[in-house]
Amino acid sequence: MQKYNALIIDDEEDSRSNTRSMLKNYCPEIEVIGEAESGPDGKLMIQDLKPQVVFLDINMPGMTGFQMLEGIYNRDFCVIFLTAYSEHGINAVKAGATDYLLKPLMLSELQTAIHKVSVYYENKSNSTTLLKNEQDKNLILINHSKGFTLTDLKEIVWLEASDNYTNLFLKGQRKIVASKTLKEFEAILPSSDFFRIHRSALINISFVKEYSNHEGGEVILIDGTRVQVSKARIQEFSEFIKTKSVSPK
């Protein structure tokens, strides 16, 4: 049985204790590796422990659960919201929650939420495996809201992060909104051809037309798109470009 590491972030000690107890006694798939009683503490704990699941209270003093999520770059874990207020349901969906549970927790609803987590990671694993297998053929399977698109790696001009989704810009002015994070694409795409020039941008080096130091540094792609290079990556990008240079004979 696959086990998933989890955090509980809730300002109420009794609520944390109840969630932890139910998970321990009835949800063997989940292993609680930490707890936090505030948004800021929870955010730091997520960065340090890198959980696969976060049980997150919405109404916390100082920083709500929604606000905490907004400050997390490239979220790669499942979120199960816990709250005593039913009116937060729509916002929970918009925040990309795996599930939304009302307090006090009902065991059947909690187990259903855990099942959704298992299905998510099983699908993710299968998709990633397929992508890596197809990569040998220069093909990549891109999942999106309407199904999937199979395309050649050489067709991808650049990728842009968009919360838990990624905008892929392809040759011919085509665009696909994929249901994967940019971080996931970065792990799959060949590093010899794709370079992360910014926290929200990954480019195909084959489509770079020009580099300009305007406003700190930007790459100009063959379709005229200008993509900012982060200051922290300028030196590394410069070294990477040198490896692609062709020396005259």
Describe the SSE topology:
Elements: E1 4-9, H1 13-26, E2 30-36, H2 39-49, E3 53-57, H3 65-70, E4 78-83, H4 89-94, E5 99-102, H5 107-135, E6 139-144, E7 147-152, E8 156-162, E9 165-170, E10 174-178, H6 182-188, E11 194-198, E12 201-204, E13 208-212, E14 218-221, E15 226-228, H7 234-243
Parallel strand pairs: 1-2, 1-3, 3-4, 4-5
Antiparallel strand pairs: 6-7, 8-9, 8-12, 9-10, 11-12, 13-14, 14-15
Using brief descriptors, characterize the structure shown.
249 residues, alpha/beta, Rossmann fold, OB fold (Dihydrolipoamide Acetyltransferase, E2P), 2 domains, 5-stranded parallel beta sheet, elongated
Describe the model:
By secondary structure, the protein is of the alpha/beta class. It folds into two domains: 4-129, 3-Layer(aba) Sandwich (Rossmann fold); 137-243, LytTr DNA-binding domain (OB fold (Dihydrolipoamide Acetyltransferase, E2P), Beta Barrel). 33% of the residues lie in helices and 32% in strands. The chain has seven helices and 15 strands. It has helices at residues 13-26, 39-49, 65-70, 89-94, 107-135, 182-188, 234-243, and strands at residues 4-9, 30-36, 53-57, 78-83, 99-102, 139-144, 147-152, 156-162, 165-170, 174-178, 194-198, 201-204, 208-212, 218-221, 226-228. A hairpin with a 5-residue loop joins strand 13 (208-212) and strand 14 (218-221). The termini are far apart.
